[in-house]
Each structure stands twice: as structure tokens, then as C-alpha cells.
Amino acid sequence: METKMLRWTVGVTRLDRIRNDETHQRLGVAPIADKLREARLRWYDHVLRASGDSVRKMGFNTDVLGKQPKKLVSTPNKRLIVRSGVTIPEAGQTLKKMTGQRFI
């Protein structure tokens, strides 16, 4: 929810000078970083479950040879996992916990 609506729900205004973090914590709203991490893990699970000849699996497993210009993004799918602060084995363990599936 928007912070404005959360403040309205709690009954505080900007004049009360209460930090947004306190409002979010009081209502139990999850931080956006956690939500983004969950979405990335869902995407990673989607790629892992793909068959070996699917385009997404081949693209994920492909290593590009040579150098790439600095302005272009290289292997975004692997960088998303690294950027989210999750190592690949750790992501597999997290997905097992989230989904309860053994084949990951």
C-alpha cells in the first residue's frame, strides 16, 4: 500500500513527524526489498524447472565469450541472483523451503 494510505489507516499525519518505517512496522507491511527478492527467487525457480532444451534454460546456462562494452548489461539473469544477495546454492535451499519441492 502507499505510505499515505498506511498513515491514514494508523491515524497519523505528516505533522505528527512519525517515520515511515515505524508506520510500516506497526502495520506489519513487508519491506519492498523482501518482495523484490521473493519475485527474483520465483523467477529463478521458473528457470530451474524448465526443460534443458527451453530457451530460458539455455540462455541462463550460456556464457558469452569476449568483452562487452561497459554500458551494456551482461548476463542479467545471473546478475539478478547475485544482486539480490543470494548465492545459487542458497537460492536452491530457499526455494525448497518456499515450495516444499524435492527436485530443486
Mind sketching the topology for me?
Blueprint: H1 3-10, H2 20-27, H3 32-49, H4 55-61, H5 76-83, H6 88-99
Helix pairs in contact: 1-2, 3-6
Q: What Rg, in angstroms, do the CA atoms define?
A: 19 Å
- The helix/strand class is mainly alpha
* Helix fraction bin: 55-70%
Strand content: under 5%
Tally of helical segments: 6
Q: Report the biggest beta sheet as strand number plus sense, adding barrel if it closes.
A: none
Shape type: elongated
Low-confidence stretches: none
Q: What is the ordering of alpha helices and beta strands?
A: HHHHHH
Task: Estimate nothing, just give the exact number of structural domains.
Answer: 2
Distance between the first and last residues' Cα: 33 Å
Kindly state the number of beta strands. Answer: 0
Mean pLDDT: 78
